[in-house]
Design brief:
With about 425 residues, this protein is α+β, with helices and mostly antiparallel strands. The protein has 4 domains: about 5-45, Arc Repressor Mutant, subunit A (Orthogonal Bundle), CATH 1.10.10; about 60-105; about 120-290, Nucleotidyltransferase, domain 5 (2-Layer Sandwich), CATH 3.30.420; about 300-375, no CATH class. Helix content is about 35%, strand content about 20%. The protein is built from 15 helices and 14 strands. The chain has helices at about 5-15, 20-25, 30-40, 45, 60-70, 75-85, 90-105, 165-180, 205-215, 230-245, 255-265, 280-285, 365-375, 375-385, 415-424, and strands at about 120-130, 140-150, 155-160, 185, 195-200, 200-205, 220, 300-305, 315, 320, 330-335, 340-345, 350-355, 360-365. The chain has a 5-stranded mixed beta sheet, with helices on both faces. It is elongated and about 185 Å long. It starts with a helix and ends with a helix. This is Integrase core domain protein. One of its GO terms (molecular function) is DNA binding. Belongs to the transposase IS21/IS408/IS1162 family.
Length: about 425
């Protein structure tokens, strides 16, 4: 097969006025070859047409496909052993190459590029980062990342734990940084976000649903084992890990987040490899399509439901907290965040406590027990002052009824005296 350089030489010599015979003699090739490439110089790029030859394995290709469809893990040796009784007379290498070709064909996956409209979608995910401390131990931090699908602008924040209040607080700070809220947010199947499918629909955590309603976006979940669906937020993790984190001198979480924010702001001036536009310029076009954030932020604290005991307390994490005695027997809501606990009933704030370290503490405000002591009706119910004791008879007399109810006639004493004189 001739090379492209040979064809270029043939064409150049022809332009110099040489005949086909002279060109063939100078280049050491046949006149037919010279004539062929002078007539069609592009034939060198097409190359030779492959010659289709019948293979000894062709009659058994249907068997191979059926076996591999039944179980893709079948080995070429197993297939070769089962082809021999069917009359196959070829070699094992031919079977091995064909099995490899069919397996590659069945495992080949094609993806469709997915782009979103401005302000339509953001993607959220977590990544784990480790820090080597001076004492030799290894600390663990988590990177919360939210990326806008259209502009590829990234918000990133390192956090110490992945609980739900921290997760939602990161959302709020991301919305503040972006200056608005996207129409929908795509999540992975996180346990604190996604519960499962109920009646054919995705079921999210109740707090996450309330948060989404408050900020006006729709939560969505990516399919299982489909990382490519969230490719926009998956790639920035390696982008941040390799560009910012590798070689970074970690001192404290606050400094690291400040440096990360500055680094991401600087990277907004880069030309994105997919969109071929500057991230900042593309974000300026997306910003008007983001929804405004509400004036009142969402309360991201935990909701814990408890029943008030007879001693006017609710239990939480091994400690007892005193509430008004009028709530005994009722259910209250504890809103817990960090070391603060607020007690609500009927959407009314009752009291706020600081959660102590350790267990077994009684945390109270004296005014609650003082109010109990002053509640006379409650004390009457407790000590039975408002009703007679059981088992005691009432000592009463009726003025119209004799003390003894007997059928006796009462006579005057003079009658008895007269009776005695007559007998004498």
């Amino acid at each position: 097969m001739r090379r492209l350089g040979d064809v270029m030489d043939i064409v150049a010599l022809k332009r110099q006025g040489l005949s086909e015979r002279q060109i063939a003699m100078r280049l050491g090739m046949s006149r037919k070859t010279v004539h062929k490439y002078l007539e069609d110089p592009e034939a060198i790029e097409r190359g030779r047409r492959p010659v289709e030859r019948e293979s000894k394995l062709d009659p058994y290709e249907g068997n191979l496909r059926a076996w591999l469809k039944e179980d893709p893990e079948y080995k070429a040796t197993w297939i070769y052993d089962h082809l021999r009784p069917l009359g196959y007379t070829g070699g094992y290498d031919l079977v091995k190459l064909k099995v490899h070709e069919l397996k590659e064909e069945s495992q080949r996956i094609a993806y469709m590029r997915f782009e979103t409209e401005p302000g339509c979608q953001a993607q959220v995910d977590f990544g784990e980062f480790q820090v080597a401390r001076e004492d030799g131990t290894v600390g663990k931090y988590y990177l919360f990342s939210m990326i806008l699908g259209y502009s590829r602008k990234i918000y990133g924040e390192l956090i110490e734990r992945c609980d739900l209040p921290t997760f939602l607080d990161c959302h709020i700070r991301a919305f503040t940084t972006f200056g608005g809220v996207p129409g929908e947010i795509l999540y992975d199947r996180m346990r604190n976000v996604y519960i499962g499918r109920v009646a054919g629909k995705s079921k999210f955590n109740a707090t996450v649903q309330g948060f989404a309603v408050h900020y006006g976006f729709k939560p969505r979940v990516a399919p299982a084992y489909a990382a490519w669906v969230k490719g926009k937020v998956e790639r920035p993790f390696s982008f941040i890990r390799e560009g910012f984190w590798r070689g970074y001198g970690f001192t404290c979480l606050e400094t690291a987040n400040r440096d990360l924010t500055e680094w991401l702001t600087m990277k907004d001036e880069r030309v994105h490899g997919t969109t071929r536009e500057v991230v900042r310029v593309r974000f300026e076009r997306e910003l008007p399509f983001l929804k405004p954030t509400p004036l009142r932020p969402f309360d991201t604290s935990y909701r814990v439901y408890r029943k008030v005991h007879k001693d006017c307390t609710v239990r939480f994490e091994g400690n007892s907290f005193v509430v008004p005695h009028t709530l005994v027997g009722k259910a209250v809501v504890l809103r817990v965040k960090d070391k603060s606990m607020r007690v609500f009933t009927d959407n009314r704030l009752v009291v706020t406590y600081t959660i102590p370290d350790g267990r077994g503490h009684l945390v109270q405000e004296k005014r609650f027990y003082e109010a109990l002591r002053k509640d006379m009706a409650m004390n009457a119910r407790k000590y039975h002052h408002a009703r007679p004791a059981k088992g005691r008879a009432k000592l009463t007399k009726s003025p119209e009824r004799p003390l003894y109810d007997m059928d006796v006639q009462i006579r005057p004493l003079s009658i008895y005296d007269h009776a005695v004189g007559a007998s004498i």
